[in-house]
Amino acid sequence: MNTFNNFSLKDKTALVSGASRGIGKAIALAFADAGANVILVSRSRQELDKIAEQISAAGQKAWPFACDISRIGEIHNFYSKVVSQTGPVDILVNVAGTIFRTDSIEFPLDKWQLSLDVNLTAPFMFCQCFARSCIQRKQRGKIINITSLLSERGRPTIPAYAVSKSGLKLLTMVLAVEWAKYKINVNAIGPGYIETELTRPLMDNETFNKWVHEKTPMDRWGTPNDLTGAALFLASGASDFITGQTIYVDGGWLANL
To answer: What was the pLDDT predicted at 197?
Structure first.
């Protein structure tokens, strides 16, 4: 028996939110390389179309769907529309998120609520839709939530982001315990400081960039591709006895005193 077959995603269908760029795009492409068909979800349909073409050219199916997940009241209907066109989903990856940086004493309530809606409530609702389908079909499923190393540590000016991501980490554990009997694995990946469009202002800040390098034992920012190995593992049969866990992909940041 070839153990590496456990890492194959052949004939699986994955839904990846936030798939138009950065971490979501990297995971979607990695899943396609592993044999999965991929449902691409983001606010930007134009970018998704390009990724879908790339996946289709490699021989896998790809379906682009535009969705603003901050409109949480529409998520259940959106999910139903998606699966009516694509068929059942085997793997759910909640990547899409948002962050606002403002001193906590001045942090606006509307930005607080939007952060919780996008980073915590929307993933929960996607998880609900996914689990209901798996349970109805009596099929196992894999959920991967993208949290953050800031689920474990505090930094100034990001109260809503830190609270929502730490909430998503605990939600991962709750759902893992509750849905294990249905053979639904629920795990998370906690990225460290990753080089993306969203973090470019931080990278361009000389003081902050120096701090990241000094704090990270591997002495560099991560890339979106650094997360694909953990995502493939958690999405595949190789992780069937793992649930409720968070894998931190941070270059040693959390381990460093």
So the answer is: 85
